[in-house]
Amino acid sequence: MNNWKDWRRHQRAELMVARECIEEADHRRWSAAITALLEQGFLTLRTGTVGFCWPHRGEYDPRPLMDFLQAHGATLALPEVVNKHEPLRFRKWWGGAPMKIGAYDIPVPDNTDLVTVDALIIPMIGFDKLGFRLGYGSGYFDRTLAAMNPRPLAIGVAFEILRLENLHPHTHDIPMDFVVTEAGIYHATHTGLKPVSVGQCADILTRENSGDLRIVE
């Protein structure tokens, strides 16, 4: 696709309008369903350091999940933009942590400790059948995932209405390891997204986890 940047810009604009038009009751219900799936299917999150994003422009709200994970012993972190061309770094967050307004007017922790994350809950404007993510266009998460070794488990979260057939990925695009929507959990394999139950998801993570939360199939 020669005009892929323009195509993605158009898709991004359409999907963001669709997301911001979701009825409040539907948004609450779908977000609660995603939270329940993450709580039940990703038990390893409770003992790791988990990065998440402050909800922005109609995204899934992960804060109830973060409260749950913190109560079960997880360390939580929010991303901080260093500069436009560098990977994100992550600062520790907890309920009541000091906050300030960061890039794009999104709240970030105010000079709390820097941490290394084991897993990331990543919002998606859109996603395709292979688990590739459409973001805001700055490439921060692709750059961050490419730079981290070991790479953290990448869990993309979005609503089903944001699903696309094909994002026409490029070499710099990195697929999610799992995608979670209000409809279920999908494991990203070489042949595409495969729906799995919460029990199957927990089994995959338990069976294949060897000190690194990322799963490769």
Automatic annotation (TrEMBL):
Keywords, alphabetical: ATP-binding, Ligase, Magnesium, Metal-binding, Nucleotide-binding
Cofactors, names only: Mg(2+)
InterPro entries xref list: FTHF_cligase, FTHF_cligase-like_sf, NagB/RpiA_transferase-like
Keyword Magnesium part of the UniProt annotation: yes
Entry's EC annotation: 6.3.3.2
GO molecular function, one term: metal ion binding
GO BP annotations, alphabetical order: folic acid-containing compound biosynthetic process; tetrahydrofolate interconversion
UniProt cross-references to NCBIfam families, sorted A to Z: MTHFS_bact
Similarity comment: Belongs to the 5-formyltetrahydrofolate cyclo-ligase family.
Identification of the protein by name: 5-formyltetrahydrofolate cyclo-ligase
Native source organism of the sequence: Nitrosospira multiformis
Taxonomic path: Bacteria, Pseudomonadati, Pseudomonadota, Betaproteobacteria, Nitrosomonadales
